[in-house]
Design a protein that fits this description.
Elements (H helix, E strand, L loop, with lengths): L1 H24 L5 H22 L3 E2 L5 E5 L13 E3 L9 E2 L3 H7 L5 E5 L5 H7 L3 E4 L7 E6 L9 E9 L5 E5 L5 E5 L6 E7 L4 E11 L2 E12 L6 E6 L4 H12 L3 E9 L2 E4 L7 H4 L4 E5 H7 L2 H10 L3 E5 L6 H9 L3 E3 L4 E3 L7 H9 L21 E3 L2 E3 L4 E5 L5 E8 L2 E6 L13 H15 L19 E4 L6 E3 L5 E3 L6 E4 L5 E7 L2 E7 L6 H15 L12 E2 L3 H19 L10
Parallel strand pairs: 2-3, 2-5, 3-4, 5-6, 14-15, 14-17, 17-18, 18-25
Antiparallel strand pairs: 1-32, 7-8, 8-11, 9-10, 9-12, 12-13, 15-16, 19-22, 20-21, 23-24, 24-25, 26-29, 27-28, 27-30, 30-31
Length: 588
């Protein structure tokens, strides 16, 4: 509007000048000449204004075809075809990215994606236009890989994968030495979970192998980061010494817990570690507390301090060591657990143990997970029992069930913490009857569900490929990415994030104010089905979006026709100003 006002002012001044000149010339000036000069002034000004600010247009090429990876060469022809770098050498207009193509074609308000879909580089630009995408058939093979989160030394980790079109395949997880640590078959949806263990701190390259019979179909690297972290603190309160406490303490120590145990031997005698005061200040030092029914009854007024600590975030596991007395049962029910069933003991339904596990237990063969005193003759193998009453409640979450479907453990929230009720009485017997993995699973699930959550270690999730942009967040101005060869790459953070293009595959390091965070980059040609499935799914999420620009919102049109018209009109005006047309001979 300012430019228009200035042009109008210039037209008025020019018209006043021409009229004054015409009056001064009198009969010597031609009225036709004055009329032409007066008309050309606003024409020149109008063309200049339209050249500087071209009017909106909806015409032109409103649809662009975008060639991505997997585009056939026969796609050339028809509406403009934009060739993105991953499409290869196809006849058409090459563009480094979709944003550049849209800037070159401002009239485009919709795009048609050809091929496997857009890469993450172009997703943001595609949100400004309507997207049409006819997806190809889903890729076959390994279509998704979920690397494990950072784990502690000696702790187990879980890696996930998804397979498509391979119903009879077997998936194996190999450690860096090439030994198979776990093997499984996919479920009907193609999902599979594999478990491994990393013993030492640092980075390790596990391998996920897909086999169909004796034939290896595909292999993928599984990066594993093992970091030292603060050991979770567990307090065990037992009403009497016994094998349940003994094996639980041994398992918790091996699992990485800092364990403190207190057992009552009667007559005021306490066994185990140094006595611990049950008060708020002391309980804040622990992440979880395991209390059996006898210790619960003996706590007295300490139960209020214990529950207050739970409301502040402490995890509490209540364990039945046998039939419950009426007072304890009523108090546990007052905490939100309904115990459905009798108060006696019942046998616990167990899954059939593996044949190898039974043989090792009977023969007394030991390994790192089975101490010598776990081998017993058949007639001395204990039974695994449970409290006949099953924990439930309207706001409880079932955590553990036996092979028969009976609930063994449930938890509920209390303030910022959680309480779990476990009705297994002789869970230690699992280690003696070929069910050591089940014992480990039960107690990991219990403590993992209620324990005070520890700060998660920093990590960069997702799968990244060499030569593809990745986004790093949580950075400061001095953040650096260290390449596998040790050379640094300085990052310039913008709003806490920065883009990074890894040139080579391997382990990289992000160095920032919070320390160093390792992350892995896959080779450029690795996991082709995973990348294709990712691009296909991301592009399908854009399909059907119809922003305002796709519904006819005008876009700025080209300015060169108006500027060319202004140049011609100005030349005509300049020529008419200096010509003798319309001037009387006497005035010359």
């Amino acid at each position: 509007m300012i430019v228009a006002a200035l042009l109008i002012l210039a037209i008025l001044l020019a018209a006043i000048r021409l009229i004054i000149w015409h009056r001064a010339a009198g009969e010597q000036a031609s009225p036709l000449r004055l009329t032409l000069l007066l008309l050309l002034q606003p024409i020149c000004a109008g063309l200049l204004l339209l050249g500087l600010f071209p009017p909106a247009t909806i015409g032109g090429s409103g649809t662009l075809r975008i060639a991505t990876a997997g585009t056939p060469r026969l796609a050339a022809g028809g509406t403009p075809l934009i060739i993105l770098p991953e499409a290869g050498t196809i006849p058409g207009e090459a563009a480094p990215d979709l944003a550049t193509a849209l800037r070159r074609h401002p009239a485009a308000n919709r795009i048609e994606i050809i091929g496997r879909g857009l890469t993450p580089r172009d997703l943001d630009a595609a949100r400004s236009v309507a997207v049409r995408f006819a997806p190809p058939q889903p890729p076959k093979g390994l279509t998704d890989l979920a690397p494990p989160v950072p784990t502690a030394p000696g702790a187990s980790f879980t890696a996930g994968a998804t397979l498509a079109g391979l119903p009879h395949a077997t998936v194996e997880l190999l450690d860096p030495a090439g030994r198979i640590t776990d093997s499984a078959t996919p479920d009907p949806d193609g999902h599979v979970r594999l478990t491994g263990t990393s013993r030492t701190t640092g980075t390790a390259d596990f391998t996920l192998r897909v086999r169909d019979g004796n034939r290896t179909i595909e292999q993928a690297g599984v990066p594993v980061v093992t970091q030292d972290s603060a050991r979770p603190r567990l307090l065990i309160l037992a009403g009497a010494p016994g094998p349940e406490v003994k094996y639980l303490r041994r398992w918790a120590t091996d699992a990485g817990f800092a364990v403190s145990t207190q057992m009552s031997a009667g007559g005021g005698i306490q066994l185990g570690d140094a006595p611990v005061s049950i008060d708020g200040a002391t309980l804040r030092r622990f992440d979880a507390v395991l209390v059996d029914d006898r210790s619960w009854a003996a706590l007295g007024g300490g139960r209020g301090a214990l529950l207050g600590a739970v409301r502040d975030g402490l995890g509490l596991i209540l364990r039945a060591s046998g039939p419950l007395d009426g007072a304890t049962r009523g108090q546990w029910q007052a905490l939100g657990f309904t115990l459905k069933g009798g108060n006696d003991l019942a046998p616990l339904a167990l899954p059939k143990p593996p044949v190898v596990a039974i043989a090792r237990t009977r023969q007394g063969i030991t390994d790192a997970d089975r101490p010598d005193d776990m081998a017993l003759p058949d007639e001395m193998l204990p039974e695994v029992t449970r409290l006949a009453a099953a924990p439930a409640g309207h706001d409880t979450v079932t955590l553990l069930q036996d092979a028969g479907g009976t609930t063994l453990a449930a938890w509920r929230a209390l303030g910022m913490g959680r309480i779990a009720l476990f009705t297994g009485v002789d869970s230690y017997a699992l280690t003696l009857t070929g069910h050591q993995p089940l014992y480990d699973q039960w107690w990991r699930s219990l403590l993992g569900a209620v324990g005070r959550p520890a700060p998660a270690p920093a990590h960069i999730d997702g799968i990244h490929w060499a030569g593809e942009r990745m986004t790093l967040c949580g950075l400061t101005g001095d953040a650096q990415a260290i390449r596998p060869d040790g050379s640094p790459a300085r990052l310039i953070p913008v709003n806490g994030c920065a883009a990074f293009w890894p040139a080579n595959a391997g382990w990289h390091i992000l160095r920032g104010k919070d320390g160093i965070t390792p992350f892995h980059v896959q080779p450029a040609g690795a996991l082709p089905a995973v990348r294709a499935a990712r691009d296909r799914a991301a592009t399908l999420m854009l399909r059907g979006d119809a922003p305002a620009t796709a519904q006819g919102e005008p876009r700025p049109g080209p300015s060169w026709p108006w500027l060319l018209g202004w140049l011609l009109a100005s030349a005509l005006l300049w020529g008419l100003e200096r010509s003798r047309i319309g001037r009387c001979q006497s005035a010359l």
